[in-house]
Amino acid sequence: MKAPASVERAISLRDLRKEFDGKEAVAGVSLEIPRGQICGYLGPNGAGKTTTVKMAAGMLKPTSGTALIEGIDVNERPLDAKARIGVVPETGALYENLTPREYLSLIGHLYHLDSGEAAEKSETFLRLFGIAEVSGRTMNSFSRGMKQKVLISAALLHNPSVLFLDEPLSGLDANTALVLKELLRELASQGKTIFYCSHVLEVVEKVCDRIVILSDGRVIADGNVDELKELTRAASLEGVFSELTSTGDLAEVVRAFSDSVTGRRVD
Known about the structure:
This protein has about 270 residues and is an alpha/beta fold. The strands form two sheets. A six-stranded mixed sheet has the order 6-7-8-3-9-10, sandwiched between helices. A four-stranded antiparallel sheet has the order 2-1-4-5. α4 (about 100-110) crosses α5 (about 115-130) and α9 packs across α10. The protein has helices at about 5-10, 50-55, 80, 100-110, 115-130, 145-155, 175-190, 200-205, 225-230, 235-245, 250-260; strands at about 10-20, 25-35, 40, 65-70, 70-75, 85-90, 160-165, 195, 210-215, 220-225. It has eleven helices and ten strands. It is about 40% helix and about 25% strand.
């Protein structure tokens, strides 16, 4: 039997807009992302990526438009929608005076998980991420990478069907980053949907099934890597991104920066 459309479309963004002080940060983004897809969401700094994630995950109310998670309007039924969502934010918001165990226990309570199950899963995540030995320490002494491991564990704890990841590899060591990339592929193969924001284009090219590129709050490209390469005649996703979002000649920009650094005159 075919799944209902609302389930097939794990994420539906419909003319999503957000203004700050009269300036449009996201200008009418519409996307339909099916179950099991890893969608890379790219753009220059200030393009509106994080704002889109916050609206789609119910962390920020849009100026207009709607965001649906598996057919559920995030603003009309926030608790039902958020029960299906896991989020790794660009800037981690941890209660750093807690230990990882305490923090993950709190997350488990918020999602109404059985305390025993939550504790068991937490210990497994902490062990796999290599921080079980320090999980009794408060996180205010942790490195950025250690905190990121706790954030990822918290996002996965309740087994969400939709993941929003904003720069998830930030601060992670190479081995952990490799594990996470393989984990994302495994989760997608199980039908989970992943909305992946990153500036690390090599990783996006290898991991994501689909690439959406944003500029000035608007979608300017949408397709798989091969389609976007063909569109721009670029050899890599890095070339695609530069071709679609660059505001000037790359060689000239580099030369101007170099001249400025070395003190040579810039015309």
